[in-house]
Amino acid sequence: MNKHTNTVWLVAVLSVFGLIYLLGPILTPFLIAAILAYIANPLVNKIEALQLGGHQRKFSFKPSRSIATLLVLLLLLAVLTMIVLIMIPLLQHEFVQISQKIPVYLNAAKANLEPWLQKNFGVSTEIDPAQIQAILTENWKTTGNFAKNIALSLSNHGMAVIGWLGNLILIPLVLFYLLLDWNIFMQKISALLPRQLIAKTQEIASEIDAVLAEFLRGQLTVMVLMSIFYATGLWMAGLEFALPIGILSGLLGFIPYLGFGLGLTLALISGVLQFGNFADLIPMLVVFGLGQLVESMALTPWLVGDRIGLHPLVVIFALMAGGQLFGFAGVLLALPVSAAIAVGFRHAKQQYLSSRFYLG
Length: 360
Known about the structure:
Blueprint: H1 3-22, H2 24-48, E1 52-53, E2 60-61, H3 65-121, H4 129-143, H5 146-156, H6 158-180, H7 182-192, H8 198-236, H9 242-251, H10 258-275, H11 282-304, H12 312-353, H13 356-359
Antiparallel strand pairs: 1-2
Helix pairs in contact: 2-3, 2-6, 2-12, 3-4, 3-6, 5-6, 8-9, 8-11, 8-12, 9-10, 10-11
């Protein structure tokens, strides 16, 4: 491969990355659909390979790729619907309880904090719990009128809402076509690879696929187990809102440090409002401290493994870069893409260490 060819390939790669950067705002639904397609494609392949009936029976049915794709989409929709139907009533119930109890918490805070502030800083608070309760009750009744809220949002932020709904509708559409032709896409990409590079490329792709599969399966299991751990631990600590905070802390664990940080913050705020005593917060600190130890020293090494191990600075940079380029979808993609790039760097390092330039 001569110098001119190398230059052409470099320009082509830089052009592709530049185009992706410029199209970043509209790529989010495509990226989310691609992630889901990568995860769901093995299931579509298994359904497509099923043989219902048999050669010796009169009735025999083999699902087509289209039917297999539709079945998987319906399964994903059912799972999403189930999560929404479980979480929304739960959160609604918890928010109602919070709105009812905040005045009580404010009375306790005023009784405990106001004398201390007045004595040490000469500051007096003017908190009217009854007025705050009236405001919360009125706003909660307003939030119950979903039709009115939707109409108000459409009138005030019409284009933003339409764009969000468009992306939401686009995701399953793109996902359907990706799943339908996933294997064809992979074959066409493989056919375009230079023949002298195809063996090495397939080796790297297989290793990346193994790393990503290990990451996705392991991370999902870690999220479920940590949700159970945090919810149970906070419940044993006596926190009233243990279930939603525990589930949120565990499910957000796929973004390093976010689930732990947000969950701990919410737990401490709820604990201060509920107990009014900082000593009662110690069990919650213990729960989250143990949770971090269990997750980092046991669950993640056991279920995710060391193959995706990335330095914390790399993790932070990848999350920030992904969010900057592609928003929330970029945050979702940051760690698996970084793991895939790490595989490529490992192979590049091997080539470099065996090169004439390094050996002299």
